[in-house]
Amino acid sequence: MSEPVIGNLMSGHIEVFVVCPADAIERSGAMSFSLSRIDDKGESRPFPIIVVRTFGNDYFGYVNRCPHENVWLNIGSGTFFSADRSFLRCGRHGARFEVDTGMCIDGPCDGQSLEPVALAVIEGDVCLCGVKLLEDDRFGDPFGDSDESMDVTIHPD
Ligand code: FES
Question: Where does the Rieske domain lie (predicted)?
Answer without folding.
Answer: 48-128
